[in-house]
Amino acid sequence: MPDKIPVCQSCAMPLERSEQQGTNLDGSPSHEYCKYCFQQGEFTCKLGLSEYIEKQTKFAAEKFGMEEAQARKIAESVLPQLKRWKNQ
Predict the structure, then answer these.
(1) Among candidates 27, 23, 3, 6, which has minimal Cα distance to 15?
(2) Is the pLDDT score of 88 beyond 90?
(3) pLDDT given for residue 1 in this prediction
(4) Helical residues (DSSP H) of 18-84, grouped into ranges
(5) Is beta strand 38-39 parallel, antiparallel or unpaired with respect to 42-43?
(6) Nearest to residue 33, comparing CAs of 47, 25, 23?
(7) What global pTM score does this model have?
(8) Residue 38's beta-bridge partner residues?
């Protein structure tokens, strides 16, 4: 059975290739966050969870042509389980 592909612990994007990884403060690759969410040891987006769910809902609807209700349902079920959002 193949290993599970890691996902960004902020947005759930699959981290299939090293160039998708964000960077830690020292410039080393982050194994937990993607380059869109985490650069130089900081999150690029300073929104709270509810605002981030809205942002991701709109992104999925526009980028992938999903119905907003379906995109919101997925975001509301997946994002709170990720490391960044777990305690919010």
Answers:
(1) 6
(2) no
(3) 45
(4) 49-64, 68-78
(5) antiparallel
(6) 23
(7) 0.88
(8) 43
